[in-house]
Design goal:
heterodimer, A: alpha+beta, 2 domains, six-stranded antiparallel beta sheet, three-stranded antiparallel beta sheet, 3 helices, 26% helix, 41% strand, elongated, B: mainly alpha, two-stranded parallel sheet, two-stranded antiparallel ribbon, 19 helices, 60% helix, 4% strand
């Protein structure tokens, strides 16, 4: 038994440098299959969540994301909705958008975005639309986040 | 220490030729990086930096094999890596984002860099919701530290070295090591630190894992990581952000500078780092450990005084085992005048072929250090060479 344990110990020790080598040299081959296999995605708290509606304004488009109330268990009491406008160089000085967040055919809030000043005026129509969270210039779009109360809680 | 005790100190020396022979495989494997750089046609300053890095790291690797002293030379490289990190990372941040500060817009576009310290926070949401709660990139790209890269390297190094990561792979720990080795007084001012503090990192680990899962955000990165001071941090856009900045700056000054200076120990690594705590737990699946031959041990306690991570106490000398937090840095091995402490392979007999166990441990450790550490050192040195040649690091 001691000899077997000793043999297995040395075998594992000899494998150790190979494990380190494979984990570095195989990065190019392992990274993508690993991500595909695990199906991991960056949290919607950072990405804004999936786009559920696109509004075409001719020279530019608005992308309305799903409301994000993500939590480990259930949903949060408050969350946000993100709206992106792109392309950046085609945006007018003032972007105006009536946003239907819950998809019932009626606008839940109105946004007036001063593109150069990166400031947004919010008009809430639905009681669960709370306040402006921020206006952000991203690499390819201008984004706005509005704080929402979770209507399901 | 008497002259005869000094002569006995540490593991037996291998001699120049035997040492060089054992070093040769490492020299060849670590040459892959500069060769790759030169093959890609990068023969300018970056190629020069890669060659210098290879030479520096391999000089110290060779000395480790030849002299039998591990910690003395490992620590120098470990410090060089940590110092090189901001030399490389800060200019990258300025080039990409204009400053070291991450704005909310940068985070919304997943512009933060992953580091291994994020792993404990990510695990629960990743397992249960398939979600990574960090605003970084998942697949490798031009940006630093993608999640997939960090995860694979973390798994590989944990399997091969366990908590050895903390003395061979970590690119922050060298700051702690640096300040713990600066001698401001003849004797350390803080000599007695209650042993119960070694459990604090486990408490921090539990707290950040739970809080990150509950808040769905990387709590340690947002609030506690002292090493944001040498990499990237959130812009002071609100009172909360200013408070967060004050918190991590205070932690850096306290845990990485002042306490290591006063105690000559790696206080952040030994008494706070939650990633280190996780590596201590993962160490169970690793085959290498440090063991004390209780028959050879003279109980002089030199090892206790030399351990930088509070991983040895009187009970260790009785049981022959360091505490859970041992980072396999080899400070105790170098310090032991009886040669009673050695790297050991689990399952084998204590005290039998210590040089074989040492050699087998040093290979994965040096490979890890040459890929991570020499890579960072190359990039940092490149920025310095660029500064000298062009007057700008950018």
């Amino acid at each position: 038994m001691n000899k077997l344990k000793s043999f297995l110990g040395y075998a594992a020790a000899i494998l150790s440098p190979l494990i380190v080598l494979v984990s570095f040299m195989g990065l190019d081959y392992l990274a993508e299959p690993f991500m595909t296999a695990t199906g991991l995605e960056v949290s919607a708290n950072f990405t804004g969540g999936e786009v559920v509606q696109t509004v075409d304004h001719g020279t530019y488009q608005a992308a309305i994301h799903r409301p994000v109330f993500d939590a480990l268990i259930g949903e949060r009491k408050t969350g946000f909705v993100q709206i992106d406008w792109a392309p950046l160089d085609a945006l007018p000085a003032l972007v105006e958008e009536e946003v239907d967040i819950d998809g019932d055919g009626q606008a839940d809030m109105g946004l007036q975005v001063d593109v150069a000043g990166e400031e947004t005026a919010l008009t809430a129509y639905a009681p669960w639309v709370l306040e402006m969270e921020g206006t952000y210039r991203l690499p390819e779009s201008l984004a706005v986040r509005v704080t929402l109360r979770n209507p399901n809680r | 220490m008497t002259t005869s005790a000094r002569a006995l100190s540490g593991p037996p020396r291998l001699g120049v030729w035997k040492g060089l022979l054992l070093w040769l495989p490492i020299a060849l494997i670590s040459a892959l990086t500069p060769l790759q750089v030169l093959q890609s046609g990068e023969v300018g300053l970056f190629g020069l930096a890669a060659l210098i890095a290879w030479a520096v790291f391999n000089t110290f690797f060779a000395l480790i094999f030849i002299t039998g002293k591990t910690h003395r030379f490992r620590a120098v490289l470990f410090i060089l890596v940590a110092v090189a990190l901001p030399l490389e990372f800060v200019p990258y941040m300025i080039e990409t984002y204009g400053s070291m500060m991450l704005t909310e817009a940068t985070m919304l576009s997943s512009g933060a860099s992953f580091c291994p310290l994020t792993m404990p926070m990510i695990l629960i949401p990743a397992l249960f919701k398939r979600v990574v709660i960090f605003p970084g990139e998942l697949l490798p790209s031009a940006a630093h530290g993608a999640f997939s890269v960090m995860f694979i390297v973390w798994v590989g190094s944990s399997l091969a070295l366990g908590r050895g990561w903390c003395s061979w792979g970590c690119f922050y720990g060298g700051w702690d090591e640096l300040f713990s080795r600066i001698r401001v007084r003849k004797r350390p001012l803080l000599r007695r630190i209650d042993r119960r503090w070694i459990y604090l990192p486990f408490a921090v680990l539990l707290a950040i894992v739970l809080l990150s899962a509950l808040t769905y955000g990387p709590v340690y990165c947002e609030w506690l990581c002292p090493f944001k001071i040498v990499t990237e941090f959130q812009a002071p856009s609100s009172a909360l952000a200013i408070f967060q900045i004050a918190t991590f700056v205070s932690l850096f000054i306290g845990l990485v500078v002042v306490l290591p200076l006063l105690s000559r120990r790696r206080v952040q690594c030994g008494l706070f780092c939650p990633f280190g705590a996780m590596q201590s737990l993962l160490n169970k699946i690793n085959i290498f450990e440090v063991r004390i031959d209780t028959e050879k041990c003279s109980k002089c306690q030199r090892c206790l005084r030399s351990c930088p991570t509070f991983s040895l106490d009187e009970s260790s000398l009785e049981s022959g085992k360091p505490l859970l937090t041992c980072t396999k840095c080899a400070a105790c091995i170098d310090a032991c005048p009886q040669g009673a402490i050695a790297y050991h392979i689990k399952g084998t007999r204590i005290g039998v072929r210590p040089n074989v166990a040492r050699g087998l441990y040093l290979y994965p450790a040096m490979i890890l250090m040459s890929f991570i550490g020499a890579g960072i050192f190359t990039s940092g040195l490149y920025r310095v060479l660029k500064l000298v040649a062009t007057g700008s690091m950018i």
